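assembly run, all chains below
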Amino acid sequence: MLTILFDGVAYGMLLFVLAIGLCVTLGLMNFINLAHGAFAMAGGYLTIVMMNRHGISFYWGLPAAFLFSALLGVILERTLYVHLYTKSHLDQVLFSIGLVFMATAVVDYFMGANQQTINLPPSLEGRVTILGASIGVYRIFTIILCGLLTIGLQFVLSKTRFGSRLRAAVDDGRVARGMGIDVTKIFAITFAFGSGLAGLGGALSTGIISMDPTFPLKYMIYFLIVISVGGATTITGPFFASLLLGVADVAGKYYVPAVGGFIIYTIMVAVLILRPQGLFTKASR
Amino acid sequence: MSMTQPTKPGDGAGARMLAGAGWRWYEVLFWLAAIGLFFIFGDFIPGIPTRLMLLSEIISLGLLALSIDLVLGYAGVVTLGQGAFFGLGSYVAGIMAKAGMGAFPLSDPLIGLAAAAAVSGLAGFITSFLVLRGSDLTRLMVTLGVALILAELANQMRWLTGGADGLQGVIMGPVLGQWDFDLWGRTAYLYSLAVLFICFWISRRIVNSTFGLSLKAIKGNALRARAIGVPVNARLIAIYTIAAAIAGVAGALLAQTTQSASPDMIAFHRSADALLILVFGGAGYLYGGLIGAGLFRVMQDVIGGITLQYWQFWLGLVLVLLVLFVRGGVIGLLEGWRDRMTRKGDAP
Amino acid sequence: MSFVLETQGLCKSFGGIIATDNVSFQLPAGARHALIGPNGAGKTTFVNQLTGVLTPTSGKILFQGEDITGWSVRRRATAGIARTFQINQLFADLTPLESVVLAISERENAASEWFKPLGSRADIVDEACALLDTLGIGDVRESRVGALPYGKQRLLEIALALAAKPKLLLLDEPAAGVPESEREQILDVVARLPDSVALVLIEHDMHLVFRFAKTISVLVNGALFCEGTAEEIARDPRVRQVYLGEEDVGHG
Ligand SMILES: Nc1ncnc2c1ncn2[C@@H]1O[C@H](COP(=O)(O)OP(=O)(O)OP(=O)(O)O)[C@@H](O)[C@H]1O
Ligand SMILES: [Mg+2]
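ok done. output:
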């Protein structure tokens, strides 16, 4: 019972780190980027290659994944994504699905279609017993790391100048522009950072869920659930939504495996109908 | 710029509007060509392989894309869930035929089609209320969610659907009590083509009517549409229901001509494929889905024949390029060429 | 005396901002009324509540004596409330003729007709053409709306509102952004409207307001500041101070 809760929380926090970049870019530019998972996949595979082929430590893999995906994000944002902000949502969806297909095919070509995992460093292996429940060390590591990241994010957003500008831009881009805030630049930075976080999340995922080329498509739905349940205007909304989803998913798979995805999809549709602006946002209009 | 000023109100305008709804020569050509394919690929000419089963499948896909065109291309509702109605239709037709064991009435193809249209239309009507409100993103998510739930249901209800293995032992009766489905797919193709044409004809009437005009208006500007008295919700419910019924017919066609139904028919990728097909062919022209389906399946056979990964890569690349550089898909390209030609012709 | 339109204690707030502050307003039949006030006074917000685009926070709206506060946009439109938008809200991909034909068809309850091709109702097409001609945009009736010059689009805004044969017409800055040379045309159209239509004009251009309006309401910070005949308002020193003083009187 406690083990499942713990696993669920770890999984949920991982989802949060994976999805938060997407939430912010959606809130900021009203831009639907279904290819967000591809950045996570990039980070994940980078870690796998570094560890399995070159024997580099997992601890180096994490920051490398972040930087790699962030760099990838900057490049794609400046070259391709900029052309799409003024296009329709349908165009954005099609474009980013196209990117997902290409990323999937490329990874498949170079890395093969099979599932790949890593061997965790010994310090992260094994289990400990807390309150009578046996819990994987890696889960604890994930929770602590993601927790620190969340606190850091919250700090940046609420306490720094960049954060207040970002919040202003999310609230009302036109007004923010009017006040002289360079929304385009903020967006580029946010996009890169969000992609980097996704990459880091992807690297972390390699220890919990394995990587394969269909990762972006498989997790796209989870990201979208996080957004639709959590809303795209705060980071606390997506955070709680991720936890809820993580716990529900792990518990669901454990207790009622037959019903599978049924529960979470139903919850998602219900939330979308009852509260289209998200479960954890204040109704503003 | 034409300099002829209309002399009296309505001078010829109504006639021009009516003429806009008339059949063009290239449309006639299109349907004649579709019939022509039957004789080319129907094992009548020695040396040319039979391809009628593939062509029937293209028709079914094209009809699904056509149904998406009605909601997306005309009414502007972004949907990722049309595949759910397709799958529902295929299961209804498949289960009925299986229960009928080849005998009238349950295994009769037309009765199967009607039942599939009714069930899918009903499902469309019920879920249409979910897409009335909200942004593009919520609509995407809701339609996707409904589709995922239905797919999951089909997977779980093994006793009815055969689960992951699909429905085995579907036996169809003859079309109109006359023509049995044959091994070469001749009956299948002509039957599919006839059904396609009827659905197309109905859709064509719809988009060329005042009702169709009101859909375009809703897509263009729902706020203004309401202000001039358009019952936006009622219109959206109507078109979403009609499109769901057509998608159900498309699914039923596939189930009947292949004599099977499987989770593959209701899976998410079917919605995505059909959406791609429509955008590739050109949304908002009715023919876009049909042309797109043909090109898509042929390309899939050619490129996918080499390796599956290549296919996905090229598909992705085509999508990205399409969004960045081409408006209106293949038909949009053709239209652009035609306009450039006529402009050249006009220039002194 | 019976009013075409009446509001009772209408309030609307957006979060902290009170955009409409306890407005009680009456409009007699055949009125030629102007609603003026500085930028952000809440004029558009007021119109949006009258037409049902926004739901008031509190208060009542009566149209021809009937409480319409809870009615949908469409129901109000069919009952006879039409409006133009401050920022063009048109069907960019249709032609002016198609747009107006649609509006008339909706009025005639002929638009749910899905099996007859467009244009089969000759009477509707003729009426649409005549309407476009009276507004002086008959020559472009078969061009794409999105490609029309701004002035013609403004006229089409009015045409769409008139197609419904409204009893009450709300014009939200119909001449805003229109070049001087084309303004006259819009004014003419407004001036020629039949007396059976009650008119409310929102406008910043004071020349235009005084030329057209018999009565005027001044809205400041969401509240009715004062009301009266055009002469009274023109002479009122308070109005000069809050509104005419700040704004360049009749810019353009
Ligand atoms: N949807 C909204 N959400 C939040 N605030 C709004 C909204 N619409 C209007 N407001 C605010 O309400 C106030 C009144 O706005 P409104 O547009 O009605 O003014 P107006 O009198 O039409 O101004 P203008 O002359 O510039 O057209 C403004 O302070 C505006 O910022
Ligand atoms: Mg205004």
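Chain C touches chain B through 52 residues (CB under 8 Å).

Residues C 43-44, 86 surround magnesium ion (ligand 2) (CB under 6 Å).

not gonna interpret more than that til we talk
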